[in-house]
Design goal:
mainly alpha; 2 helices
Length: 59
């Protein structure tokens, strides 16, 4: 993320998801289950958002 300006808003979301995956390894097993559920929901939303934006723009 440093020194690189994202071209698309969805790029920011995918960078955040990448950081969350790395950070999630440090959690305890019970916390990790809850964390993974929320991360997967965010990931699905980000993918849907990315598709919607590309259709709106006509890319």
């Amino acid at each position: 993320m440093e020194r690189i300006f994202p071209k698309h808003p969805s790029d920011v979301l995918f960078l955040i998801l990448s950081k969350l995956q790395r950070w999630g390894i440090l959690l305890r097993s019970k916390e990790k289950e809850l964390f993974d559920e929320q991360r997967l929901k965010l990931e699905a939303w980000a993918k849907d958002f990315s598709k919607t934006v590309s259709m709106d723009v006509g890319v």
